[in-house]
Design brief:
single chain; 528 residues; alpha/beta; 6-stranded mixed sheet; 18 helices; 48% helix; globular
């Protein structure tokens, strides 16, 4: 990389390359599990110094390098899963990490290049253009085919719940815009070219935006805390801590079942309204059709029956994740969450809709199938669900998100719009060991609660299991790699947010503004 960069840019640009890479590293340190306080507000400043007074081609290159370094650092856990559980070689695992980082970095490069283009040709301040184009490309990352909206910029501020309450209007994208705005303003205040008046305007813009956000957040949290709850649900979170290396071994089915049975019996002593097991907690195929269990499925059917008996014996309703067979059209495997009533009847289920590429299914199989025979997940390939089901229990209605579905804002929003007053995120984070990934997933899940002012219960196999309040505050969180069963009470008020009702309106406005700005900027292309 360094030799190629020197030959392409020249040695005089080595400082700019270093600034770009440094910016990527600093930005990564703002995210879980490092979470260095305050760095998110100046992490982009080195990159802004690197791109100043450079042609747009180099703006693109420096910005891409910043994004590449950032995504390498933030996604370093991917080779852990590939090497440990997919038995990939170190070279192959690192190659996949580099490829994904290179692709994701294109959004950073495109956002900065387009923002600079509009700013330079139309004279619009960077404090307006760069937050706008950044949000536009974060929106594309979320909803493009094979979208991977991991570590959007705003997630780095997930613990600053007072500051980010305005996400109930803008979603995560508004928090990202605020962070970019403050970074651009900080850069402008540090440069020599603007006048003192201009520097004061930049400072007023940044401090004003943050100050308004803090004032609103303080008032909003106080209001939410004062609002009486209209319902409550006592939930028992069962974190069994089953190692991924043993999870799908047939010899481990009985010990695994016994662990969950014992934890459920223990939870029943607290008389919760609902016991919750994590994603694919049942290490057997859950066969809902009682009359269909031929041949090899008899093994799975026996555990299915024992599970229902456990529920009847404890008289505790159970929500669990389990692989399931669906017979509605053709026989297919689903990653499913089943809700079982206290009398042992399956009263509803939700099939995971947003599957993990190359894990639960192979996208564009005609192309990638030549290189990848099967997904990583042992129960795959999986067929995606087609409808967002709300599951009723007592007075609550549960909106279920399975694993990384929690990083897609629209899925949580659609559940709440469909009537859910409690969000439940079932996950199996054993894939990631003790890397940053479980912490990053928790941060992203917490934002779904804030955006919709809807409490979330997160139950993960090895952790982090947690309860998130409607304000986005993580009020109960387990440690990683521990076996725990904890009973918590979640409340709801029935309030709906602007974001719940109107969705990504802010981000869509930014995308439209960036598009119009680009068209006008190209129309003003300098002649000659």
């Amino acid at each position: 990389m360094s030799t190629e960069c020197r030959s392409r840019f020249g040695s005089r640009d080595s400082a700019r390359l270093a600034l770009s890479a440094c910016s990527g590293l600093i930005l990564a340190l703002a995210f879980p599990k490092f979470e260095l306080p305050g760095v998110i507000w100046f992490a982009l400043v080195p990159l802004l110094f690197a791109i100043e007074r450079n042609p747009l081609q180099r703006v693109f290159a420096y910005s891409w390098l910043q994004g590449f370094v950032f995504f390498l650092a933030i996604l370093y856990w991917i080779p852990v899963a590939l090497i440990t559980y997919a038995h990939a070689s170190l070279a192959a695992a690192l190659a996949k990490l580099r490829f994904l980082a290179a692709v994701e970095a294109l959004s950073v490069a495109a956002a900065f290049t387009l923002g600079e283009l509009i700013s330079r040709r139309l004279g619009v301040p960077g404090t307006i253009t760069l937050p706008t184009t950044w949000v536009a490309f974060e929106l594309l990352r979320t909803y493009l085919p094979l979208g991977f909206p991991w570590a959007l910029l705003g997630y780095a501020a997930y613990r600053d719940v007072t500051l980010i309450q305005f996400a109930e209007f803008t979603g995560i994208y508004g928090v990202s815009a605020l962070i970019v705005l403050v970074n651009v303003a900080a850069y402008r205040m540090l440069t020599r070219s603007p006048t003192i008046t201009a520097k004061l305007v930049e400072a007023a813009t940044a401090f004003g935006a943050v100050g308004i956000a803090l004032l609103f957040g303080t008032a909003r949290i106080s209001q939410l805390h004062a609002t009486p709850a209209v319902g409550s649900l006592r939930v028992a979170l069962v974190q069994a801590n089953i190692p991924q290396s043993l999870k799908w071994e047939q010899s481990s089915v009985e010990p695994t079942f016994q662990i969950y049975a014992q934890e459920t019996l223990s939870a029943s002593q607290q008389h919760p309204d609902l016991v919750i097991w994590p994603e694919t907690a049942a290490p057997f195929v859950f066969i809902a059709q009682a009359d269909y269990a031929p041949g090899p499925l008899q093994f799975h059917r026996a555990y299915h029956d024992r599970l229902l008996k456990l529920v009847r014996d404890t008289r505790q309703p159970l929500l669990l994740g389990a692989p399931a067979l669906d017979f509605s059209d053709r026989i297919s495997t689903r990653n499913r969450a089943d809700l079982i009533s206290a009398d042992g009847n399956v009263v509803g289920y939700y099939d995971k809709m947003m599957l993990v590429p190359f894990d639960e299914y192979v996208p564009m199989a005609r192309i990638f199938g030549r290189f990848i025979d099967k997904p990583v997940e042992s129960i795959g390939p999986i067929t995606a669900g087609t409808r967002q089901t709300v599951l009723p229990i007592k007075d609550a209605k549960l909106g279920v998100l399975i694993c990384y579905e929690s990083i897609f804002p629209s899925l949580a929003r659609n559940s709440v719009r469909a009537g859910a007053n409690v969000l439940v995120n079932l996950s199996n984070d054993a894939w990631f060991g003790t890397t940053s990934a479980p912490y990053q997933l928790l941060a992203m899940a917490a934002m779904r609660a804030l955006e919709n002012h809807t409490a979330m219960v997160r139950v993960a196999n090895t952790g982090i299991s947690a309860v998130v309040s409607p304000t986005g505050e993580i009020v109960a969180a387990s440690k990683l790699s521990t076996r725990i069963t904890e009973t918590e009470t979640v409340l709801w008020t029935g309030n709906r947010t602007f974001y719940t009702e109107h969705g990504d309106l802010f981000a869509e406005f930014c995308a439209a503004a960036a598009t119009i700005g680009a068209l006008v900027a190209f129309a003003f292309r300098p002649q000659g």
